[in-house]
Amino acid sequence: MAQKKQNAFYAQSGGVTAVINASACGLIETARQNKKRIGKVYAGRNGIIGALTEDLIDTSKESKKDIAALKFTPSGAFGSCRHKLKSFEANRAEYERLIEVFKAHDIGYFFYNGGGDSMDTANKVAQVSKKMGFPITCVGIPKTVDNDLPITDNSPGFGSVAKYVAVSIREAGFDVASMAESSTKVFVMEVMGRHAGWIAAAGGLAAEKESDAPHIILFPEVAFNKEKFLKKVNQCVKKFGYCAIVVSEGAAYKDGTFLADAGSVDAFGHKQLGGVAPVVAQMVKDELGFKYHWAVADYLQRAARHIASETDVEQAYAMGKAAVEYALAGKNAVMPTIVRKKTKKYQWTIGEAKLSDVANVEKMMPKKYISSNGFHITEACREYLSPLIKGESYPTFKNGLPQYVVLKNEPVKKLLKKKFKI
Amino acid sequence: MAQKKQNAFYAQSGGVTAVINASACGLIETARQNKKRIGKVYAGRNGIIGALTEDLIDTSKESKKDIAALKFTPSGAFGSCRHKLKSFEANRAEYERLIEVFKAHDIGYFFYNGGGDSMDTANKVAQVSKKMGFPITCVGIPKTVDNDLPITDNSPGFGSVAKYVAVSIREAGFDVASMAESSTKVFVMEVMGRHAGWIAAAGGLAAEKESDAPHIILFPEVAFNKEKFLKKVNQCVKKFGYCAIVVSEGAAYKDGTFLADAGSVDAFGHKQLGGVAPVVAQMVKDELGFKYHWAVADYLQRAARHIASETDVEQAYAMGKAAVEYALAGKNAVMPTIVRKKTKKYQWTIGEAKLSDVANVEKMMPKKYISSNGFHITEACREYLSPLIKGESYPTFKNGLPQYVVLKNEPVKKLLKKKFKI
User: Fold this and answer.
1) What is the tens place of the pLDDT at every residue in B293-327?
2) Lowest-confidence range among A198-202, B252-256, B318-322?
3) Distance CA B146, CA B197 (A)
4) How far does the CA of residue A179 sit from the closest CA of chain B (Å)?
5) What is the pLDDT of residue B4?
6) CA-to-CA distance for A229 and A249, rounded, in angstroms?
7) Helices (DSSP H) in A33-157: which residue ranges?
8) Does B360 contact A at CB distance below 8 Å?
9) What does pLDDT average to over chain A?
């Protein structure tokens, strides 16, 4: 446990979001307010790879204004990566190298901003550093658009994607409704969410009544039944004149085969998906003959800082701030969480979870959040999701474009002679 | 020329936009201020189809508040369609029916809100109504996301799509830049624009310096050269770490073959396109091996009222207003236009064009707007486009979602016994 003044290391991990930089902002601003305990905040260039290669960024070189601007800037300002550390037994060299780098730069605090895989890494660093006689205070900061981290009520990054998806399908729904009589009758929008349908579910918020878009949501949690689906599409077109569909990239048949499967695999061993929207649209065209259009939002949804949820931004900031406060309070191998209060009006506070309880656990959508026909969300789901997209937090615009900060990202002088190959 | 008090007919035509309802708002509000000359404004349900089938909407039944809300609502509030009237010789019955309906409902003003095809229709109605002894004052209102109407400096609807595209590729560019070291290196975003590259060009506004996204724009105006393209992609990845590409749905090979061709044809005989982004992305993967992601914005781009350009909204409103004023001034077979003043700071005023000069003419991008290597926009293009995306015009949000109006759209009592089959 670091009581003397030591430096801190911060890294962003995995897919970036519209608000992960808001967590960085909360963390750096809070660290700067605690200079007696925390020296400099070093960020890993491209996440944990920066720690392994001793490629550290000196955030103390950034102006107060630029750090504040992080709250309004999407993406990962220091770079992120999809490099997952193996177990200590399987790749001892990586852990030894990390501790070596941290020791050389007098780093007593390790802050890792990511999803389940990253919480696993942070937890291992806490254990290994102790074993190796250089104990480091490790605090995770939750981040994932997939909203699949356990214990925390929701994950920073999700609320903004949720808002983007709900806003987009509402707007596209209005568009299609006005043309459906003589043109496009079926619109399919593909959204992210590998195994959990949280993002797809958020699209459901746009539908305040049965006739509103989206009429159908295809969840990864519900086995795709072509016949039932086509019947529902046909019903919607007959009843409302058109049918707007939100489909999760993870939508799959009963046997687990994804509706669209690009076939390649990412560094974490997850299948890389994409292109389910055209598959679903073509199915509708072939079987029902309706004119269709489809959209694949892809990175646009998770980068859309211009329509970020204010709630999400505030929570992301608060998680970064709390991480520093927890570390200074001597808490180790924990992650701050968002706790929903049991009030009628949405209120939240900050809790904590052990990293060992968070690591590698995927929070699925509760069954009670999916309507009985499997095609929409329930009132319980709406109550859960609705506050998360609340509030707008617009960036500054100049000449019609949002002004996002690009940091100087000045490197810290390397102190180790040995290079490390990833 | 209508001098006595008569009713007006208004219809929305073709693909809807984020701001076509702002034109409707300008038109209806101005008509309501001129009750001595204009009785009621009847809107065609689903565009010109509503006129042919005598399915008229009585806009006088809508509250002042709801009409004002049209300024903030995307899509076509009365419904639009892709029905193109043939020549008088080829389908005399349609024109006779139109005049019959207009006569029955004492309609002396015909306002048609659409693109080049619609201006052609409005022009024909002006001619035919005169021939048939029931002269109607016909005024077109420009609308097209494609920005391909001639004479007018730009077309309402375009500025907002342009802003959406520029904002989106900037945000996605930030995202990819932060992950490129170990993940996605090439991002492809597909945008609309059949024959003219205006929308794709707008993406270029996001790049304020060479290293900014997008690094490559694929225009319909520039024959696609695979070898040259892949070389450029490779250069960008080497130089900037990643490559962000905006591709127009109309991008084509030298022989005119579209890079992606869905094969079907719409009511105007245009080929229906979609899906060029995955084609380009796969090409990059196959030849260069880079990890890719792609997005197809489709309707999201033209419906995105939440990020509409304030300039565009104001101009759309002004066109609707001017249409009424022109009609009341006795102008016939004209269309108000946007005229760019020759001032250093962007200023615009309202001009007029003859419908016969506008009809069926496509304004292409000038060659001087495309950089010499064919992959980006020039400074001249930037100067032209930049003011069109300026200003934000946010809708009201409630519970995190934009509040768009759905009108009552009460039908006008039918007066004709004869039905009409489209």
Assistant:
1) 999 999 999 999 999 999 999 999 999 999 999 99
2) B252-256
3) 8
4) 5
5) 84
6) 16
7) 48-52, 64-69, 92-104, 116-131
8) no
9) 94
pTM: 0.96
Q: How far is CA A255 from the centre of its chain?
A: 27
Peptide bond into B214 cis (omega under 30): yes
The 8-class DSSP code of residue B156 comes to T
Q: Tokens representing B398?
A: 């409630």
Window B:158-187, CB contacts with A under 8 Å: 163, 166-168, 170-172, 174-179, 181-184, 187
Containing H/E element for B169?
Answer: helix B158-179
Radius of gyration from C-alpha coordinates of chain B: 22
Query: What's the sign of the alpha-carbon dihedral B269, B275, B281, B283?
Result: negative
Measure the CA–CA gap between A74 and A268, rounded to whole angstroms. 23
> To the nearest whole angstrom, how far is the Cα of A137 from the nearest Cα of chain B?
26
Contact assignment for B386 to A397 by CB distance below 8 Å: no
Look at residue B272 in the predicted model and tell me its pLDDT. 46
Of A80, A179, A183, Cβ closest to residue B179: A80
Nearest neighbour of A299 by CB, restricted to B187, B302, B389:
B187
Residue ranges and CATH numbers for the domains of chain B are: 6-143+307-361+395-402 (3.40.50.450), 158-304+367-389 (3.40.50.460)
Cis peptide preceding A214, ω within 30 of 0 = yes
Q: Average pLDDT in the B166-192 region?
A: 97
Burial string for A371-397 (b: 16+ CB within 10 Å, else e) reads eeebbbbbeebbebbbbbbbbbbebeb
Q: What's the N-to-C CA distance of chain A in angstroms? A: 29
Give strand pairing partners of B351. B337
Nearest CA to B230 among B243, B214, B212, B249? B243
Cα–Cα distance measured from residue A114 to residue B300, given in angstroms and rounded to the nearest whole number: 29
CA nearest to B151, candidates B310, B291, B322, B335: B335
